[in-house]
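Form 7-S
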Amino acid sequence: MPIVPPSKLAELQTNVRNIRNVCVLAHVDHGKTTLSDALLATNGIISNKLAGKVRYLDSREDEQERGITMESSGISLYYKLAREPADSDSDAESTEYLVNLIDSPGHVDFASEVASAARLSDGALVLVDVVEGVCTQTVSVLRQAWVENVHPVLFLNKIDRLIVEWQMTPNEAYVHMQQLIEQVNAVLAGFWEGDRLAEDSRKLEEAKERWRETHGDDAPMTEWYLEEKDDSQIYFSPEQGNVLFGSAIDGWAFRVNHFAAIFSEKLGLPSPAKLQPLMWGEYFIDPKTKRRVLTRKQYTKLYGTGKAAAAMPLFVQLCLVPLWQVYESIVVEYDQEKIDKVISTLGVKVLPRDRKTKDHRALLTVVMQGWLPLAQTCMVAIIEQLPSPVAAQPLRLPPLVHGEAKSQADKKAVEPTNDIERALFACTAGTATDPAPLVAYIGKIVSIPRESLPEFSSGANKSNRLTMTADEMRARGRDAVRRELALSRESASGTPLSLLSPQDPASAVASGVATPIQNASTSSASSQYASPDVLVDAMREKLELEADPEAGEDETLVGFGRIYSGTVRVGDKIWAMQPKYNAKNKSTQSYLKQVTVRALYMMMGREFVRLKEVPAGNVFGIRGVAGAILKSGTLASDPLKCPNLAAIHSETYPIVRVALEPVNPQDISKLVRGLELLNQADPCVQIISQSTGERVLVTAGELHLERCMKDLRERFAKCEIHVSEPIVPYREGIVRQSGQSGVLLGEMGSSGQLLAIISKTSHGKNTEDPNEQAEDHIRTKSAENQLSRGEVSMTTANGMVTITVQVEPLPEKTTRFLLRHEDDIGRVVKLASASQRRNRLYAASEALEESGSIGDEDELDTMVAAINVDSDEDEGNDESMQTKTAKPSKSSELGPWLQSRLRTTFRRAKGWEPQRVDHAMASGLWAFGPRRVGPNMLLYSESMTAQSSKAHTSWFNARNPSAAESSSAATPSILSSPDESDSDEHFEAATTPDSASQSKNTQYSIRDFEESINTGFQLATQSGPLCFEPLAGVAVTVKNFVYNNGGAVGTNSPIQSAEAVNSSVLSGQIITTVRDAIKAGYLQWSPRLYLAMYTCDIQATSEVLGKVYAVINRRRGRILSEEMREGTPYFTIKAAIPIVESFGFADDIRKRTSGAAIPLLLFRGYEPLDTDPFWVPTTEEELEDLGEKADRENVAKKYMDKVRKRKGLFVERKIVEHAEKQRTLKK
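Output:
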C-alpha cells in the first residue's frame, strides 16, 4: 500500500463514524509491539519484512536495548475496507477508516501508561500468549479495560509455538486454546460478578433509604433477591468474531468467519453466516456426505462412540489442520515438493528468490502473509468489532462526567440532561457558525526534544517530506521561499512585520491588499509584494516563537489527549482544569488556568504532524498546556459549565524511593528543573522535597527507577547525579509475645543501651550519655510498677495535667483490614469532618448575629454550601474509580459497613473482650492514625467517654444528619484534617471575643483538649520509636485524664486554676506528653518491624525450579503457591519477597536460570517480621547454642540499624579503638 499523506489522515478526522481509537494491551513479551509493526506496514511506514524487528513505536534507546515497551505511543493509520456488494449488479462499496492506534507497555512498573492509553481509547486488542497463558498483567490490563469501559477483542498469539516447540496435534491445540479462552472469560466473569453485587448493594441501600423516608424505620428486606442479568455480551467467543488466532512474528492471523466464507459454498450452505456459529464447539462434518454438520450426539448415534471420540471438530478440521500442514511442510520437514503443492493449493504468489531461500522461517512468513495476512485481519476486526466514538461515548462518558461508578452489569446508554452532555454523548464537533462546547482530556504529558517538533527543526521537516506527495512538497517549498524572502526584507527595511498590527497580525492584510516590502538591494522606489497569506504565516510563526514560554529549553512538553466534543484550533484560548478543580468550590480555583493552544499535532509514533484543528472523536497532541496540567486533566471552553472529567485510575502506586543530589553542588538548579520536567512527563513518578532540603524521587519499581534516572541524566537535568540506596518504607508494630521490653533493661546486655537511647529519644530528651539514660529509664519504670504492661502515666512539664494511656497490639486480622481499607476510612472521615464543620459554621453564624458582628448571611451560607458540594463531588469521583467490591458504593453508607466488618475482626482476639469491643465500636473509637486514616486506633475508656464532649456515635453514622447535629457545634472535631483546624480556630475566636482576659476564670476540662490528645496520637503513630517509621497495628486507649493543682494531684473533676494558665501552652504540652506516653508504652511490648512486600510471579520449566527456589530463599522470600499449567511444561510460582531484598532480584534470577525465568513484581502490602530487634540470648539453651553475644545475625536489627543510620540516629555498633593491640590483630 502506498504511503498515506498526512493531509488524507487529517481529512478522515472529520468523519467521526469511521474513526476507531484502539489500544494494544497485554502482559510483557506477549507480542504487542510486533503486532503494531504489522499494522504500520499497511500504511507503508515500514516494510512487511521488518515487521516485528524494527519495533517502530519503541522510540527510546533503552526500549530497543531491553526489547520491552516503557512508554505508550500513538500513531494514526489509514485503512480502506472493501465490502462485497449486496447483489451482483451493484459496485463494491469502499469505505475509508482512520485507526488511531496506541501501543502500551506490559511491564507492571509502567501500569500508569496502560491506564492513560485505556482512557484515550474506545476499544482494545488484548493479546495472550498461548504458551504462557493468562498472566498477572493480563488480568491487570483486562481490569483496566473493564474500569474504563473499553470494549476488548482477544488475540491468541504465538500459535506457532504450539506447532514447532510443543509439537501438539491439532486436536490438542484446540483443547488448549479452548481452556485458555475459558480462563480469560473467567476473569471477566469475576469483574461482572463484582459489579453486579455492588449494583445490587447500591439498589438495596436506596430502597432502604426510601423506606426510612416513608416509614421512619428500617425496611424489612425479606423479599429482596439478587437480580439476574444476561452477561453473554461480555465474553469472548470465536463464533461471534471477537477472537483472533495467529502468530504476529510470522505475520498471519484469522477469524473463524474467514474459513466459514471459504467452506460454506463447499458444504452447500446459502451464506457464511449459517456456518460461522458452528465453527467453534462440538460440531463435526458428516464423513459420508461431506455436506452435513452434526453435533456430537448425532455423530455418536450414526457412527458409534469410538469414531465420535476420534472425530475432529469443525474448527480443527477446517482451520487448524491446514495450518499444521503448512508448518510441517516448510519448517518441520522442509519438503520442497510439499511446499510447491501448498503454495499452489493456497494460491499464494511467491517469488522465485523466496522459494530458493535457505531461511525457512522467511519463506513461511511470505506464504502465511499471502494466505492469512495479519494486518488486514486485525484491521477488519477492529472496524467491525470495536465501536466508533459516536457509539462508545454514550456508554463511557457518564461515569467520567457525573463521577458515579456505572456498573457494566447495567450497561445502558444514559440520557443526557443538558446541552453539554448532549454534545459529549453525541461526539459533536460543531461548525464555525454553530460551535459545540469544547471538552477534551489530557491523559499524559510527553516530553519531546525540541528539535523533534516540526516547527523547530529542519531535520524534522526533511523527515516529514517523506510522507508528502510531490505537489504538496512543491507548494511547501514555494511558501518557504516566500516566507524567507519576506523576513529578510523585513530585517533590511528595519520595519518589523509584527508592528503592522500589534494585536492581530492578520489585520494588516484584512483589506486583501498586498503589503509592499521595499527591496533593499536597489535604491529605486519600486516595491515588490508578498502574498498576504505568506506574511500572516511569517508573522504568526515569529510571534509564537517570541511568546513561547518554553523557548530556550531543550525539552518541550506536549499533552497527549482525546477530544470528546467541539473542535480545538491553534491559537484558541481554553481552560485547563486539574482533577481537583471544582467549579462550585472557590478554594480550588488554583487548579484552573487559561492556556493558549500553540500547536496541534497528529501523533505518528516518532514523528509529529502539525494540524490547524482537531475535531471531536480524535486523539491528538497539544503544545501550550505545560504548567497548567501536571500529569492529566481536562480542557474546556467554559470551566463553569463544562464538566471536569474524573481522574485516571491506576493499579500501580509508587513505592521505591531514592534521595537525589547533584555531584557538583552548582548544578542544584539543573536538578530542580529536571525533576520538575520529569514530574510532568511521567504519570506515575512522585517528587518529594523534604524539610531538610533533600529531594526524594518515588518510582513504581526498579526498572521504572532506572528509566527515570536515565531521563534525568541525559535529557532533563543533564548533569551528574548521586543516587542514594533505595529508601524502602517500613512500619513498626508490637506483639503480645513475651520478650525483651523496656522493663527488662538491666538484663538485656548490649541491646539495652540502644533501647535506652530509643526510650530517651521518644521522651524528647537529648541526653548523650547512654548510662544516664538507662538509669533514668529504669527509675521511671520502677515508679510505674503498679501499672499493667503497656500502661503509662505521664505528667505535663508544668505539672498541670496527668494522662494515663494504655498501649497494646491490635489483632492481626484488624491490622490487615485497616491497611486494606485506608481509602474507605478516609472517605468516611472526610464525610464526618464536613458534617461537623458545617454544624460549627452554623453555630458561629448564630453567635455572630447575636453580637451584631455580621449582617449578611449570604457569604456564610455560600461557604457552608461549598463544603457540602466539595465533599460530595470529590467522593463521587473517588467512587467512579473504586475497585469493584460488594461494599456500599455511597460514602454515606460506608460507615455502618466498616463498623460491622471491623467488629468481626476482633472475634476471639486475646485481650479484646466482647464488651470492650462493643463499647469501642459504639462510642469509644476516637480516631485512626497516622494521617487520620492509618492502621492504628485511638480509643476512649468507658469512664473517659462519659467525660468527653460527646459520645462519638457520629463516626460510623456520618450519613445521619441528626447524629451530627446532636454534637456540640463549638467543639473542635477530632476528625477534622489539619488544614481545617485553622478555619475552626478562626470561628472559635469569633465566638469568644476576649478569651485572653477571661483566662483566669476559665474552667478547663478534657473537652477543651480533645484535639490536642488526637494530635499527640497522630504524631506518635506517624513516627515510631524504633526507626521513626509509621506505626501499624497499635491501639491506644485513654484511661485517665487528671488535673493537678499547683503540681499536686487533685480529683478527676474540672477545677479553677489558682493562676492564669495559657490554654495554648497547656495544649502544646499535652500533645507532647501524649506522644511520649504512647512511645513509652510501645517499648514495653515486644516490638516488630513490618516489611513492605512484593508478590513475585514466575513462570519456569522444571529444569530451573531448583535455581528459582534458591534465589528466592537467598532473598529471604517464601513460596506462596506452585502449580503446573495443564498441558504445558511450565510451572507457575507465586512468592512473597521483601522489597528491601528485591533490588537486583530480576537480574539475579535471569542469570541463574540463563533467562528461562523472568519474575514479575507487584506491591503486596506490609507483613510483620517475626523477630525482635532487641533479642539477646537469655535461657540456658540459647546461651549454650549462641553464646552471650548471639553471633547469629538479627535480621530485624540489621534493617532497623540501616534505617537509623540513614536518618542520622544513634546506632549501636562496635568500633575498634586500639587497632595495634594483639587481640585486635588476631581478629
